[in-house]
Amino acid sequence: MAQYDVADRSAIVTGAVGTTIRIFSGSDARRNIRRRGEDLRANAVVLDSGRVLGPGEIGILAATGHATVLVHRRPRIAILANGDELVDLDRFEEVVAGRKIVNSNTYALAAAVAAAGGEPIPLGIAPDDLEEIRARLVLGRDADAILTTAGASVGQHDLVKDALLELGFELDFWRVRMRPGSPFSFGRLGGVPVFGIAGNPVSVLVTFEVLVRPAIRRMLGRRDVHACTIRVRAAERIPGAGRLTHFPRVRLESDGDGGYTAQ
């Protein structure tokens, strides 16, 4: 008598006539059965508000017969760069010659806005001219928020604040206790939030991550407005910034035990 494991289907198919099959495991009538209500019970909430709709969520909506659903539209975020020294990429030869600085902040902010779920609306580069700055800010009034960069630091050529105040800007605060990004302003222009970000490229991205991205996520109706955080071990002493909240630049490396070390 030949003996085969019931899982060996090839043996069953090719076995000779009269072959005996011995089953070594007991059958379970409850296995491989999907019962009604196992995934979703009647009257259960399928998706909470504030949830990002990905492939799985859209599949659930279709499976439960929801052809349409109310969603938040992507907020339109206007971005204005300011400074006589700034040029766009079509004048990069002036950057190479050492006469100008490329307007990298607008590109970085546009990418950050898109990654956060917003729609970037570049307003271009405003020179250090009060009327020019004011005219471009007026164009941003139809947006859901305005980001300005390079005009938030202390200096005689920083005219963005003056232009905003002339347009009826309501200033909430002008500086924050953080580094980098201390020269940061926030207020409203006709009800539109305005974020004033310093021109340093590192300050731009740190400030956006800490203060602007959560606002965009809130506009999207999300509940998880803050980015996730992880705990790491410092490989060496990291100098502080006094009474300021410090966001130092580090490189994370795996420590081999499932954690990370900050270099």
Automatic annotation (TrEMBL):
Keywords: Magnesium, Metal-binding, Molybdenum, Molybdenum cofactor biosynthesis, Transferase. Its EC number is 2.10.1.1. It catalyses: adenylyl-molybdopterin + molybdate = Mo-molybdopterin + AMP + H(+). SUPFAM superfamilies: MoeA N-terminal region -like, Molybdenum cofactor biosynthesis proteins. InterPro entries: MoaB/Mog-like_dom_sf, MoaB/Mog_dom, MoeA-like, MoeA_C_domain_IV_sf, MoeA_linker/N, MoeA_linker/N_sf. Its cofactor is Mg(2+). Residues 78-218 form the MoaB/Mog domain. GO terms for molecular function: metal ion binding; molybdopterin molybdotransferase activity. Pathway: Cofactor biosynthesis; molybdopterin biosynthesis. One of its GO terms (biological process) is Mo-molybdopterin cofactor biosynthetic process. It is an enzyme of class 2 (transferase). The keyword Coiled coil does not apply. It holds the Pfam family MoeA_N. This is molybdopterin molybdotransferase. It comes from uncultured organism.
